[in-house]
Amino acid sequence: MTFEINAFVTTGVHGKFKEATRQVEELDPYEILINVLASGICHTDCRYIETEGMNLGHEPVGLVEAIGSSVKNFSKGDYVGFSYLQSSCLTCDQCCAGDDLYCENRVCYPGKGVNNGFSKNAVVDSRFSYHIPANIEPKYAGPLMCAGSTVFNGLYSSNLSPTASVGIVGIGGLGHLALQFANKWGCHVTAISTSASKKEEALSFGAHEYINSSDFGTPGFFEKAPKFDLILNTTSADLPYDDYIKLLKPKGQFLLIGVPTKSMDVNAFPFIGYELGMRGSLVGGRRAVRLMLEFAARHNIKPQVEEYPFTVKGLEDAMESCETYKARYRAVLVQDHKDDSKL
Ligand SMILES: NC(=O)c1ccc[n+]([C@@H]2O[C@H](COP(=O)([O-])OP(=O)(O)OC[C@H]3O[C@@H](n4cnc5c(N)ncnc54)[C@H](OP(=O)(O)O)[C@@H]3O)[C@@H](O)[C@H]2O)c1
Ligand SMILES: [Zn+2]
Ligand SMILES: [Zn+2]
User: Fold this and answer.
1) What are phi and psi of 54, to 5 degrees?
2) Cα(268)–Cα(75) distance, integer angstroms
């Protein structure tokens, strides 16, 4: 049976998209066809905004429309999503250890750039797709697929105790979810932001304290400032790292999630003197995404979203909101859907 895929693709003109269709002759044994209900916009999508012919988006959720001959874990009508890790070999040491994300043959977003989330439907590997809990609406589930997985995995892989003190830098799509996850982890949570206008919302998302990073320049600030076991940086800004490192407790960790534009210049002495650490973290493998979905459903964690229609214009507006840092806090394309009996 032939399926027609209806996608939005980049045109090579900054911020402009067009519709494109392609035919899929037959599903591979492990593939599923998904009708997309909602698809979030992540700042990582903006990196490809001037590349021509790319179908972007890695926060889609929808309903299964058809399944391949070997698919065991999904049926037609199931409510599912997919994320940043699109495939791995399933047999190498990393895959066998549960570190599928670090498989040497992994395929991560955007893959070949033809089969992603800004699309009315998509054909994906069922083994890298996820059942979405029924109590999470599509517009809220979409942003969990990347933003939620990434910050959950950052916290999970940091082996945080509930007594830990956590600073979340950058209150955007990832950051506002990180405040919610860290609060439910039981931690003491501080939002660190450049935007005074986000203070009240940051507190409502679960921050116990708010710091405006412009106060770093105030004399005596670092003597009085709270200190953190973990600082989770979700900005793509080239931060004054030495200042942030002053906010770590001994043995504290600085976690890089946002992608800076330049090489980082950091003073080594505090790392040696106080056994500090700095490491990076990439979205999440399959186990992390599953755990995240269960945790988010149990704790009613959901993004605050701006809804856009699932059209070329809707996507262009949503991308602009994300690219200009205006989104409060995640722009999401949302399909009108009449039958939600499966959700
Ligand atoms: N490691 C991973 O696996 C992974 C996964 C997803 C995304 N990312 C990356 O994480 C970053 C955040 O993504 P997002 O979708 O959350 O973005 P976003 O919604 O645009 O949020 C980024 C936030 O960073 C803060 N910011 C302050 N100054 C900035 C500056 N000069 N440049 C950039 N940001 C600044 C802003 O928060 P305030 O107003 O509070 O200061 C802004 O809301 C991006 O670099 C993205 O590519 C990484
Ligand atoms: Zn992303
Ligand atoms: Zn592998």
Assistant:
1) -100, 130
2) 53
Quick check: CB of 234 below 6 Å from ligand 1? yes
User: Is 236 touching ligand 1 by the criterion CB < 6 Å?
Assistant: yes
Whether 235 is in the pocket of ligand 1, judged by its Cβ within 6 Å, is yes
- Architecture of the domain whose range is 158-280: 3-Layer(aba) Sandwich (3.40)
Tell me the one-letter amino acid at 228: F
State which CATH number among 3.90.180.10, 3.20.20.10, 3.40.50.970, 3.40.640.10 fits the domain covering 3-146+303-334.
3.90.180.10
Provide DSSP, 259-322. Answer: --SS-----SHHHHHTT-EEEE--S--HHHHHHHHHHHHHHT----EEEEESSHHHHHHHHHHH
The answer to whether 80 and 182 are in contact (CB under 8 A) is no
Cβ atoms 342, 79 nearer than 8 A: yes
The 10 Å Cβ neighbour count of residue 111 is 15
Nearest alpha carbon to residue 326 among 301, 300, 302, 308: 308
- Is the overall model pTM greater than 0.90, yes or no? yes
Q: How far is the CA of 209 from the centre of ligand 3 (A)?
A: 42
Distance between Cα 337 and ligand 1 center (Å): 31
| Contact call for residues 298 and 133 (beta carbons, < 8 A) | no
Question: With a 6 A CB cut-off, is 288 part of the ligand 1 pocket?
Answer: no
Lowest mean pLDDT among 35-49, 172-186, 227-241, 323-337: 323-337
Q: How far is CA 297 from the centre of its chain?
A: 16
Domain regions of the chain by residue span: 3-146+303-334, 158-280
3-class DSSP assignment, residue 134: coil
Closest residue (by CA) to atom 21 of ligand 1? 172
Residue 323's pLDDT band (cuts 50, 70, 90): very high
pLDDT band at 175, cuts 50/70/90? very high
Instruction: Tell me the mean pLDDT in the region 60-75.
Output: 97
Distance 96 CA to ligand 2 centre (A): 25
